[in-house]
Amino acid sequence: MNGVVVQNMSFKAGQTLTVKGVPSIDSTNFAINVGNSSEDLALHINPRFDAHGDQQAVVCNSFQGGNWCQEHREGGFPFKQGEDFKIQITFNSEEFRIILPDGSEIHFPNRTGGKKYKYMHFEGEARIYSIEIK
Fold first, then answer.
1. Any idea where the Galectin domain is (predicted)?
2. Is the model's pTM score more than 0.90?
3. Could you tell me the residue range of the domain that residue 33 belongs to?
4. What would the pLDDT profile of 1-53 be if each residue is shown by its tens digit?
5. Residue 119 has pLDDT above 60, yes or no
6. Cα 87-46-28 angle, rounded to 5 deg
């Protein structure tokens, strides 16, 4: 598995996870994953500049029991290659609220219903330089 993995850093319902980074100048996509393990992802956020048949789309999904669930697309695409971004994620037992760099929001169902997650994985063509939970 490529990318950066953060384990045993508790992210609880009501807290805010803030991720700051910069996509490479030729980035096709990157992903932020939140869950309990690489096999149990409650949230997969995948900004796609040009990847997997999508152009300028933010795709959200979850991964359970070895299978990807149904993809969720919502909103615009406020990411630019080579430019800094900030994403803020909060959740409760029913949904994740993702605030994108331009202030727009994505609401994605918390399909696992979890109240605490301990696994984060950052992958793809972006350099993540700050991860904060408050």
1. 3-134
2. yes
3. 4-133
4. 467 788 878 999 999 999 999 999 999 999 999 999 999 999 999 999 999 99
5. yes
6. 110
